[in-house]
Amino acid sequence: MDALLALSAYDQLMLLRQSQLTPSKLTDVYIAQIDKLNDSLGAFVQVSAEDARERAASLEKDSQDKYLLWGMPHADKDLVERRGMPTGYGSRAGGLVAEESAPISQLADELGMVNLGKTNTPEFGFYGYTESDVSPPARHPLAPELGAGGSSGGAAVAVAAHMLPWAIGSDGGGSVRIPAATVGLVGLKPTLGRLRPDREASSIVGVVNGPITRNVRDAALLFDGLTENTSRSLRALSSELPQLSFAATADSPWDGFVSIEPDSAVLLAWQNAIEALQNIGMSYTGEADWNCDYYGETFRDAWWRSAAGMPENLPLELLNPVTRYFVEAGRSFDHDRIDRNIANIHTYQRETSQKWKDWDILVTPALGQLPQPVGHYSTDPEENFAQQIHYSPYTSWVNLTGRPAITVPVSTHIDPHSGVRLPVGVQLVGRHGSDELLLQVAFHLERCLSLGPVWAPPTE
């Protein structure tokens, strides 16, 4: 592996800014890594090597002072339109060439980044795993028989396998945090509305864009770029933590809708994080009651309403059976059911705010289970939905309430499927607008629980 790939995104950007590295050189190094690994890992569905090289060369002729992230490679998730490129949406119904770029792609360009292509995603992003009818599955770089989570699974694989320095994922129920936690990365779901492109969009379940990175410092750097704030989060990282309190829960609001029983390794990682947060000076207020008897129906109906919002002229026969079920279920709702769903969402948001009075941060497991094998998920819609909840019972409520959350790897465990030692993570959830504070806490937690070289990329 090229020595440049072993550097953090932060260190690569510093070399670019100091003229010790050019965008063209960095772009070529990453394209070579993609060529070497992508066929076996399924991270990218399109690689735009020549366009990337032209973009890098163009940036070298421009002033880097105009760009916060000058010359840094990235890739669009294949749910995101980029002018002149087809958008596959992980579906047989996709593939149209976009006439305009989506706001998040435009922002990446404004920041001076170099787009290397499109990363793998499940059909229209409706799944917490990355398998589809049109592309190979996204595979865990450390254990390729395992899936990478979703829906930003291709992006997470690309970052973990050093095919990208970082990635911008989208998250409407955990789609940044699930794959990041699955493959041992940092995944940040920002407060709803912190990014300009998210303020310009509307979403039933609170979809936002956020960083997927190999460490917290890189997440802060990319977040500062995406929020167009020069180094605000980055400067705060190593500062002494203020007086903070936290609660913890392994309860899931889905419990009751389905029975949630987290894996023992998941609970051990969560308990380790509770101890570590106290070791860095935070005050532990105890376990929080996070059960909710109406949450499961509420988020399920919101999810299906989102599916129902796909274009009316979309040929349903081109969708896989599970997606088609979601769309048809959402379109069957009458006005009373929609009104009840909207009211329940507002009630849940109020109740969550009321519970938050006594602490600054809530700590949960990142996932409910260890990574599952490729092909694990059923083609039966109801069973499939339940399987996804079992895997990720802690992420979706954060979207529904608009809060910021970050997943951080905190321990490792020998995977029973592969026999490989894999990272296990936790999720930190903050108050509205506390993204910078959340990054600071995650940075101190990361330093306290350094796991060493478990994320070394595959070499062939």
UniProtKB/TrEMBL annotation:
Assigned protein family: Belongs to the amidase family.
GO MF entry, a single one: catalytic activity
- Membrane-spanning intervals of the chain: none
This chain's source organism reads Scrofimicrobium canadense
Taking every annotated instance into account, which residue ranges of this chain make up the domain Amidase?
26-439
PANTHER family noted in UniProt: GLUTAMYL-TRNA(GLN) AMIDOTRANSFERASE SUBUNIT A, MITOCHONDRIAL (PTHR11895:SF7), TRANSAMIDASE (PTHR11895)
- What is the official name of this protein in its record? Amidase
